[in-house]
Amino acid sequence: MTGYLSDVTALARKDLVVELRSRDTVPAMLLFVVATLVIFHFALPDDSSRLAAAGMLWIALLFTALLALVRSFVAERDEAVIDGLLLAPCDRSAIWLGKTISVFAFLALAEAVALPAFALFYDPVTWELIAGVALANVGIAAVGTLLGAMAAASRARELLLPLLFLPLAIPIVVGGVGATLAEDPGRYLGFLGLYDLIFAILSWASFEYVVTE
Amino acid sequence: MLLVTGLGLALLWAPEDADQGPSQRIFYIHVPVALTAYACFGWAAWKAFRLLWKGDERADLESYTAVHIGVIFGLLTLVTGSIWAKISWGVWWTWSERQLVLFLILFLFYSAYFMLRYSTEPGPRRARTSAVYALFGAVLLPVSFLAIRLANQLLHPAPLFNRDGPQMSASMFISFCVCLVAMLTLAGALYLIELTGKRVDARLRELRELLA
Amino acid sequence: MIHARGLGRRFGDKRALADVDVDVGTGELLLVTGPNGSGKTTLLRLIAGLIVPTSGELEVAVDRARIGFLGHEPLLYRELTPLENLDLYGRLYRIPERRERIGMLLERFGLWEARREQTGAFSRGMLQRLALCRALLHEPDLLLLDEPFSALDAGGTELLLDELGRASSRTVVVASHLPERLGPIPSARLALGPT
């Protein structure tokens, strides 16, 4: 067990250090999410309700997440570095868990900028929203990492990942927007938790079938 | 094979007579088609599971064919549902009709399945990846249903349209069941036809390879 | 150690390897030759377990943890230093006394000076030497080298030949289209034809 956890830690740390030094993904995510929030101002008519603004936030977060997910397998895919990980005796699912943790971290960083920006431009941010975002992150990272590995095996990688991801992201959006707007956010947060549980376990278990040749 | 198809189609025409009204007719097609689509996706997920668990390579083709038939029936569900909406409420689409929205999501999901298969090299990896995706689809089904329910409660609190609950009399119920069986049979026949065709294709390719 | 009968691998419509029979005993050094496209890389990847056969059978008597692999790509992270790269692999392979082993290898292959520089700045020869360190890090029982000489500089070649020449119970499979480099070291040969 400790071996597994140490593998996961080593792998997650690797992803974080690589990102820290290459600064490929996170800056782009930050810029993208803020730019998207600004565009929404011009896309929404003036008398739009809170609902529209909250919905737009979730769309912005979702597409920013796609940026992170597309990039998450780039290095490994481009230079086949993932072969090195696959040759190692570690459990394949540890690769998934390490990646998921690092994607979660990148998303959290982006949201640390996006949420204040949202509060500035549109509406104050509530605790329910933050909780919803945190739970949604888990689902996005978990499912997205698995789908990223699937898409990495195909020819049209950058196109395929959004196509695979968006239908699965619909429940996340429902949960997230619900948590933001409903009088009873508990139900929606619970739903997000359920989604996370089901799909995280499914992704964890099926990763090895998807990443090996 | 064709006999089974013919039988299925013949059975469809029979219950038209036992109708309460012309608009209700579509119900006999719409719901069985929807249920058949669910069955196809479920079958695809089962075959996918067999592929991953037992390593049964043939299950790849079976799973793929099931998804294909499922998508066809899914499309039919959307079309018949749309027609029903037009007849009942005068609009081609409504978001408060849960079944319809669910099928829209599933349709998107399984269309992506084909994109996945199309853009990946044939081989054990594509088979496994498709299988995992098909399994996700089966899980997505109930989760989406729940999500749609929650979404409707939030964003569409007062349902604009009331769906007439099928208070079915005995004769209607029988007609419905017959239609359901007919649809399932039709799906099964199409599945077998397509599967056999694909298997023959694969064999031909193998033989051509050996001769080359 | 390695046993294959009728081994083959297809990628889509392309047949990369067809009907290969191999038997390699422990301690042997097998040299695999053949022109480009004859399937040398595919064969090595099959033995390493990176891909599975689509026809025939293959048995490899060791598991993943005891296999060392040097492929076309160095399998190293550009943003990480040699120390960090090897430390990652060291952890994944559960090497005892990781630091000492890494230090020893880096020194032997002349990379100690550059141990704290990101590998993205390395020359091809240095990268290949580091990749060799990675392959040897866990003292594998089975070593697979795919065209090792193509990216190695003169110094690296010396080091590799020295390493291969050492008597040990290690089994080695080398794929190369320049077999002369190895001289008399190989104890067995396999020639692959174009498919």
General description of the model:
The complex is a heterotrimer of chains A (213), B (212) and C (195). Chain A is mostly helical and 213 residues long. Chain A is built from nine helices and no strands. In chain A, 53% of the residues are buried. Chain B has helices at 2-13, 25-54, 59-89, 98-118, 124-155, 170-211. The model of chain B is unreliable at 158-165 (pLDDT under 50). The model of chain C has no long low-confidence stretch (mean pLDDT 88). Chains in contact: A-B, A-C, B-C. Chain A binds chain B through residues 51, 146, 150-151, 153-156, 159-160, 163-164, 166-168, 170-171, 174-175, 177-178, 181-182, 187-188, 191, 194-195, 198-199, 202, 206, 209-210, 212-213, and chain B through 52, 105-106, 108-109, 111-112, 115-116, 119-121, 123-126, 128-129, 131-133, 135-136, 139-140, 143-144, 146-148, 150-151, 154-155.
Helix content of chain A: over 70%
Give the total of beta strands of chain B: 0
Oligomer, anyone?
A: heterotrimer
Low-pLDDT ranges of chain A:
none
Strand tally of chain A is 0
Helix and strand topology:
The complex is a heterotrimer of chains A (213), B (212) and C (195).
Chain A: H1 2-22, H2 26-43, H3 50-72, H4 74-78, H5 82-87, H6 92-121, H7 127-152, H8 157-181, H9 185-211
Helix pairs in contact in A: 1-6, 2-3, 2-6, 3-6, 3-7, 3-8, 6-7, 6-9, 7-8, 7-9, 8-9
Chain B: H1 2-13, H2 25-54, H3 59-89, H4 98-118, H5 124-155, H6 170-211
Helix pairs in contact in B: 1-6, 2-3, 2-5, 2-6, 3-4, 3-5, 3-6, 4-5
Chain C: E1 2-11, E2 14-24, E3 29-33, H1 40-48, E4 55-60, E5 67-70, H2 82-92, H3 98-108, H4 124-136, E6 142-146, H5 154-165, E7 171-175, E8 188-191
Parallel strand pairs in C: 3-7, 3-8, 5-6, 6-7
Antiparallel strand pairs in C: 1-2, 1-4
Helix pairs in contact in C: 2-3
